[in-house]
Each structure stands twice: as C-alpha cells, then as structure tokens.
Amino acid sequence: MSNPLLQLRPLGQSLWYDNIDRAQIKSGQLHRLLEEDGVVGVTANPTTFEKAIRAGHAYDEQMQQLMREGKSAKDICDTLVTTDVCTVAEMLYPIYESTGGQDGYVSLEVSPELAHDTARTLEDTRRYWDMIARPNLMIKIPGTPEGIAALQQALTEGINVNVTLIFSLENYRRVAEAYVSALEIRLQRGLDIKHLASVASFFVSRLDVLIDSLLEEKIKNTRDPLEQHKIATLSGKAAIANARLVYQEFRQVFSSARFASLARAGGKLQRPLWASTSTKNPAYRDVLYAEELIGPNTVDTMPLETIEHFRDHGEVHLSIERDLAQASNVLTSLAQIGISYEKVTQQLQEEGIQKFAASYCAMYKGTQDKQSVMGRP
C-alpha cells in the first residue's frame, strides 16, 4: 500500500471527503477517490455548492427546468443540492452495506441559522430526511444546547445525525450523552437501534488559529524572554491536545457498562469525526492534524487539498493516544497564562455558526444570481 491514505483503514480510521459538487461526480473524480484513495463517506459543504452553482455549468440544465416550473430560488437550490446528495448516497450505498452501516454515509446540514432553535432545526431535519429517504444519509446538526435537544429527538425518531461544530470537552460530553440517551429511549420503546448511526464532528484546526493569535498577543505584551519562550512553546499545541482528550472521553463513554447493554442490542459507537483538519498556518506541516489524530474508531473528513497532500507525503502511525500527559498539560498551561479554554471554545462555536450561516446564505444568493444570468424563460 504505497498510498498512505489506504493505510488509515487498517488502523481503524475511516476517511471521508469534505466536498460534493456535480462536476466532480460527472467527471469521475469522486469515483476515483472512492476506488483509489479509500474514501468511505462524504460530507456536503454549502461553500462548495455555492461556488459550483455560481461559476460552473453542471447545474444549468436542471436549473432551467426548475425555472420553467416556476420554482423559487430556495426551492431550486434545495433541489440541486438534494439531487447531488441522492446521487452520492447511491454511490456510497455498497460501502454502507459492506461495512454493516459503519461507513458509506453522506452528510447534509440543516440551516445553521436555526442553530439556536430546536423546533425549526427538527423541522428542517425531518424535511431533508423524508425528502432524500436514504438509510445512509446523515443530517448535520450543530452541537449547540438547542441543537443537542434537536439531535436527541431526531435520533430517537431514527434519523442518523452528524453532530457538527463541537469544540470543547464539555460540549462533547453532552453530545455523547444525548446519543446514548436516544438509544436507550428507542430500546425501551422496542424500536430498532441497529441501523441508527451518528458521528460527533470535532473541529480541530480552528482552535489553534484562535489560540495562536492569543498567544502572539501575550508574547507582545511581556518583555521577559523566559516567559516569551514559555508562551511560544504552546503554539500549535492546543488543537491536537484537545482532540486527544476528547478521544479519551469517547473511550470512557463507549466502554462503560451503560453502553455495553446497548452494544449487545446492536447499538453502534458514535465515533469522533475530526473536521477542519486542513492546516491553516503555513508554518505547520500541511498534514499535521491528519497525521496526529489517527486511531481506532475515528473518522477524518478531509478536503481535496489535504487528501492530495496526505496521498503524497502523509506518514501513518497510531497517534491519537500519544503524549496524553502533555495534552492535559497544554490546557493547564493555557489557563495559567490567562487563556480561558471555555471562552475560546464557546467563541469558536458561535463564530462557526455565523460562518456556516453566511455560507448557507451565499449558496442561496449564488442560485439567485445564476438565475439572473440565465434569465427566466
């Protein structure tokens, strides 16, 4: 296996692709990623859809038909996106079957504008679930308090959920609790839990981006060379440390006697999914996060650029439980110099919701703009 991407699965990590657009489907690029690089899942990205709809021509024929039918821009956009999601779900279905429902999923998010509205998030979740009607679909719901309430209810109803925008350990604990509780409720009601699936998407690199900027400010505001050095040693350390501690929480929750009874009834693990694993700081190795978070029962969802980098020079080794003592020390050291882990992770979740909502709005705006360019019939 000269391709490092193909070495991930024997170590227990599933590779998912963070991208869908029709041109990639038609050109065979997505098929090649599945066949040659071992991709076993796909997540939709509204930014990618917006760019593809606005700039490309792969959607033109379907758009023209929908315009002739008098559909609104929102309905057109939803139809274009769900058509692609259905196509990808069909492509992934053999993987879904061969892995017993562990992989082979395609994820589609509800509107992030609803992240603090439980009822409307549930409404959107049910609408997409019914519209697409594929067993290997996951609905992406943000891990806000309101989102957690929605995702627990959705799971209880038998809807697969990809919980997004998780940043903190406490946030992860609440998400895992919601998943386990949903399985328990279904089992108590005599409902199937064997075919219910969920992943907990933990956003990685964004933590380093924000904390590194705070560290730079701390360095500028002190003249003590020893203190400056101490602060500088924390750069680029928080994200990996945080994810490794989350993995320990995952192992604790899903090795408990409480979950064992659910596992005997066919309940699946809610695997941690490492999202935002592209490296934002050019000073860091471009596959840093992908290399340092490899371990059993995990998922890494990579954009195309990271896949290409990892295929070229990724180094594969079991790394998720390396230096656990150091991981705890990183968070302790940040607190000692006045950087609040709780405030940083809460800020990142709120900013993430705002960015996702902006991307979602841009996707609809891109559809409207394309309609104007094409002209109404």
TrEMBL record:
GO MF annotations in UniProt: transaldolase activity
Subcellular location: Cytoplasm
Reactions it catalyzes: D-sedoheptulose 7-phosphate + D-glyceraldehyde 3-phosphate = D-erythrose 4-phosphate + beta-D-fructose 6-phosphate
Principal localisation: cytoplasm
Active site: K140
Gene Ontology biological process terms in this record: carbohydrate metabolic process; pentose-phosphate shunt
Known EC number: 2.2.1.2
Family from the record: Belongs to the transaldolase family. Type 2 subfamily.
Function of the molecule: Transaldolase is important for the balance of metabolites in the pentose-phosphate pathway.
Protein name: Transaldolase
Species of the source: Ktedonobacter racemifer DSM 44963
Top-level taxonomy: Bacteria, Bacillati, Chloroflexota, Ktedonobacteria, Ktedonobacterales
Name of the gene this protein is made from: tal
